[in-house]
Structures are given as structure tokens and as C-alpha cells.
């Protein structure tokens, strides 16, 4: 899902819950690349969604948005803003609407061209919630309860919403709805994609071959951007930190944050994430922004490194901010993009939902 967007080991067993609450192992023989009901073998189709849980950061740009834009060259791409996922915790409705539109606009501004892919708001395609319930009816309680993100997030909340427990079924629906073959994911989402494979395998065996079996893909290594003020922690869009560079920060603020970045003892500019996390973070950002391998970067001092990194980040952000400003000045353009994207997504999703319902024994209208 990005928030991401939504990694499997093709040789790994599919782990599910047995009837007694223990673990049972099913292997996916005969289901890899299963042909969807009523269709033909799918060509490459990439699926990635991004959750509007905060203002997008430089880390989101380098780790998700730009890599997604590059995937437009590889096949049929479906991208979305997973606003339904944001309902799993307490939220402000007005802020959710604002952040959803902001994220959609930044997707376009970062190069996710709606003329070359499907780009939509998840909540504008009712089939996501409909298929999620069918998959909830395929999933086991034990599977949901064992999800690492559920354990971690529920431990931090005094009141836990039921949707936090069941949203992995929604994430699985996001993937299976469009018969996605390739799902770019980070390590933190690997378990969710494994569950998607579990559910697709179980459904196809029990009811018939409705879902294409997706696989995780690992795009070329994207920068893991750390907090500039605490370089041992990942840069987060949901934590207020002076070391977070937001994509819509004024340019002078961007430069100031980078120039104030925490470095390390000593004076040698060398990539050593363990011994020099601050300097290594700046080198990783500079490399991601310029396309120059870290090993080929040279900077005589920490001050020079900070200036070069700030210049590179600003050169990357300025055209994105200009494009976003154009979209903001003409709200009808973004609204039209999302309306068209939702229509295309609904058309693609309809056949999958009908096939799944019929396979489960539900009567067509």
C-alpha cells in the first residue's frame, strides 16, 4: 500500500491460521500467475498507493514518488491515494481532505503523469471497500491479530479502532482488485503483501481462479532519508521535527534545515552509516538528488557537503513546487484528473468484484 505505497519471497511458504489458532503452512503451487476469472494472463501491472497521514517529505519524494514515476516506463501502472487507510486512527476530517488533495497534487507534480497511468482517490472507488469485506470473509482472525503493524500501533493507542485490525484485508483488496502483478514495497510492508498472497491463494483454491497472484518487486535502491536533526531516525511526515524537510517548505526554509543538519565528530566526509550517520545521511540525499553514486561524491568539508546537498535538494524541489502551485491555482484541473482516474479505476475494478461475488455464491443484481 505507500503509504506507499504496498515484498514477497517467492520461495517462502504462505503462512495461515489453522483451525485451532496455530500456524498452518500452505504453499502456493498452482496459483502463481493465476489467470483471473473471465480474463487472460495479465501483462505487467504495477500497483502502489500512498496514505495521506501527514505532509509529504523529502523522504517520501526520494523513496516513493520519484521511483513510482520511473515505473511508468515499465508497464501498466495504477496509483492511488489511500485515504480510507487514514481512517484507522483518530483524524480530523477537514485535514484528511486537505492532505488527500495535497498528496494527489504532489504525485502529479513529481512526475506521476495521469495520462500514462490510473491515478485516483481510493474512497472514490467503492469496489475497494466491497472487495475488502469479501476478503475479510476469507481471512482468519489470527492472521489479522498477528500483523506486526497492528501490534505496534495498537500498543500506542488507548482506543483501538476495529479498522486497524482489519485494514490488511483492505490493502489486499487494493492489490487484487486491479489484478496487479507487481507491487513495489519496503520492508515494513512485506508482511501485508505476504498476507495478500495468502488470501489470494486461499480464495482461488476454495472458490475458483479469480485473482492474479501478485509478487513483490524491489525497485532500484531508493534513498532511505533520515531526520536531519536525528540521523538515526527515519524522516517522518507524521512527527513534528526540525530535521524534516517537507516538499512544500519554502526554499529558504529547506536550505536552513539542511545547513543546520546534525553531522558527526571528526572532519572526514565519508559514507559510514554506523560511525557517521549524519554525514552518511547527507551523502545519501545528495546521491539520490543528483544520480551520482555515493562512492563518486567528493566534498572537502562538512560545510561544503551541506551546501552541495542543499543546492541539489532545492534544484529538485523548485520545479515540483512550481507545478504544484499551478495545480493549486486551478483546482478544477486536479479535480478533473481525479474524477477521470476514479472513472477508469471503477471500470477496471468492476469485473473483479463481480467475479469474486459470483464465485462466493452471491447473486448478481
From TrEMBL:
Region (Disordered): 1-39
Pfam families, sorted: tRNA-synt_1b
GO molecular function: ligase activity
Domain of life: Bacteria
Keyword terms: Aminoacyl-tRNA synthetase, ATP-binding, Ligase, Nucleotide-binding, Protein biosynthesis
Enzyme class: ligase
UniProt KW Nucleotide-binding keyword: yes
Alphabetized SUPFAM superfamilies for the sequence: Nucleotidylyl transferase (SSF52374)
Keyword Transit peptide (UniProt): no
EC number: 6.1.1.2
Family listed: Belongs to the class-I aminoacyl-tRNA synthetase family.
Entries under PANTHER family matching the protein: TRYPTOPHAN--TRNA LIGASE, MITOCHONDRIAL
Protein name (record): Tryptophan--tRNA ligase
Lineage: Bacteria, Bacillati, Actinomycetota, Actinomycetes, Streptosporangiales
Gene giving rise to this polypeptide: trpS_1
Amino acid at each position: 500500500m505507500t503509504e506507499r505505497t504496498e515484498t514477497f519471497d517467492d520461495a517462502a511458504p504462505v503462512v495461515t491460521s489453522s483451525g485451532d489458532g496455530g500456524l498452518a503452512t500452505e504453499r502456493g503451487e498452482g496459483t502463481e500467475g493465476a489467470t483471473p476469472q473471465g480474463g487472460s494472463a495479465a501483462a505487467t501491472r504495477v500497483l502502489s498507493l500512498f496514505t495521506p497521514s501527514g505532509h509529504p517529505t523529502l523522504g517520501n519524494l526520494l523513496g516513493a514518488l520519484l521511483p513510482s514515476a520511473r515505473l511508468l516506463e515499465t508497464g501498466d501502472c495504477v496509483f492511488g491515494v489511500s485515504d480510507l487507510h487514514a481512517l484507522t486512527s483518530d483524524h480530523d476530517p477537514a485535514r484528511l481532505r486537505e492532505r488527500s488533495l495535497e498528496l494527489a497534487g504532489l504525485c502529479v507534480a513529481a512526475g506521476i503523469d495521469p495520462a500514462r497511468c490510473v491515478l485516483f482517490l481510493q474512497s472514490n472507488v467503492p469496489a475497494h471497500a466491497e472487495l475488502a469485506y469479501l476478503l475479510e470473509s476469507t481471512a482468519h482472525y489470527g492472521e489479522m491479530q498477528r500483523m506486526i503493524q497492528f501490534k505496534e500501533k495498537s500498543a500506542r493507542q488507548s482506543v483501538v479502532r476495529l479498522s486497524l485490525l482489519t485494514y490488511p484485508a483492505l490493502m489486499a483488496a487494493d492489490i487484487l482488485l486491479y489484478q496487479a502483478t507487481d507491487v513495489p514495497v519496503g520492508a515494513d510492508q512485506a508482511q501485508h503483501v505476504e498476507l495478500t498472497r495468502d488470501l489470494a491463494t486461499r480464495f482461488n483454491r476454495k472458490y475458483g481462479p479469480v485473482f492474479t497472484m501478485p509478487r513483490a518487486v524491489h525497485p532500484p535502491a531508493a534513498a532511505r532519508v533520515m531526520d536531519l536533526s536525528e540521523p538515526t531516525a527515519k524522516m517522518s511526515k507524521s512527527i513534528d521535527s526540525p530535521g524534516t524537510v517537507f516538499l512544500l517548505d519554502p526554499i529558504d526554509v529547506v536550505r536552513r534545515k539542511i545547513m543546520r543538519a546534525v553531522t558527526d565528530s571528526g572532519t572526514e566526509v565519508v559514507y559510514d552509516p554506523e560511525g557517521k550517520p549524519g554525514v552518511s545521511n547527507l551523502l545519501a540525499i545528495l546521491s539520490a538528488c543528483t544520480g551520482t553514486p555515493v562512492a563518486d561524491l567528493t566534498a572537502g568539508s562538512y560545510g561544503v557537503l551541506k551546501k552541495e546537498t542543499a543546492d541539489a535538494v532545492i534544484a529538485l524541489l523548485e520545479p515540483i513546487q512550481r507545478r504544484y502551485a499551478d495545480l493549486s491555482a486551478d483546482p478544477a484541473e486536479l479535480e478533473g484528473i481525479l474524477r477521470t482516474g476514479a472513472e477508469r479505476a471503477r471500470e477496471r475494478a468492476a469485473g473483479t468484484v463481480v467475479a469474486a461475488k459470483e464465485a462466493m455464491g452471491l447473486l448478481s443484481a
